[in-house]
Design brief:
rod-shaped, six-stranded antiparallel sheet, Jelly Rolls, single chain, 434 Repressor (Amino-terminal Domain), four-stranded antiparallel sheet, 189 residues
Length: 189
């Protein structure tokens, strides 16, 4: 969408009882250029736009107030979340996924791992980063040949290119919040 603000400039100029010539002289541009900008025939360079804003004594925010980018927002209501079992005893609850696979973006899950179950792969990793926070239970995170024990409130982040396994070796369910970037998108929507 091409943003046009010529009408606002003209309106302010007319309210201030200024002529095209007066505004052009104050801004250091030609009268013809001001006229073309007001009629949205040309888009001014930023320095010309700033000079016109100064000449008309208006705030740039006023001029650009109608130009607000819609930001991406993906709202997932609690009752609309998708659940996926990837392995026996491992339940993923998709909290969010922004962007597509392989691009900049994130995906987030609440993961519940039953006693004795695990997720991940001991043979290979994948591009990107992961971050997890233990909500309840105790986790065992194996990255390469190192093992880390995580308790409620503990968080961890790491480059996901190393083989890694998230396991529950305890007798109680493990619940974690997990974020991956870029989205791995192996769990179907």
């Amino acid at each position: 969408m091409k943003y046009q603000f010529g009408e606002k400039l003209r309106l302010v100029r007319e309210r201030r009882s200024l002529t095209l010539k007066e505004v052009a002289e104050k801004a250091g541009v030609s009268e013809s250029l001001v006229s073309q900008i007001e009629r949205n025939r040309v888009s001014p360079a930023i320095d010309t736009l700033l000079a016109l804003v100064e000449a008309l004594d208006i705030d740039l925010e006023y001029l650009l107030a109608d130009f607000r980018r819609d930001r991406t927002l993906k709202l997932v209501r609690k009752n609309e979340r998708n659940f996926f079992k990837t392995k026996p005893g491992v339940l993923y609850e998709r909290l969010a996924q922004v962007d597509e696979e392989g691009k900049d973006g994130i995906e987030a899950y609440a993961i519940t791992i039953a006693a004795g179950a695990e997720t991940g792969n001991a043979e290979y990793g994948h591009p990107g980063w992961e971050l997890g926070v233990v909500d309840a239970g105790q986790a065992e995170l194996i990255i390469g040949n190192k093992t880390y024990t995580l308790k409620p409130g503990d968080s961890v982040s790491f480059g996901a290119d190393s083989p890694h396994i998230l396991a529950n070796r305890s007798s109680k369910a493990l619940r974690m919040f997990w974020v991956m970037t870029p989205p791995k998108n192996v769990i179907s929507r």
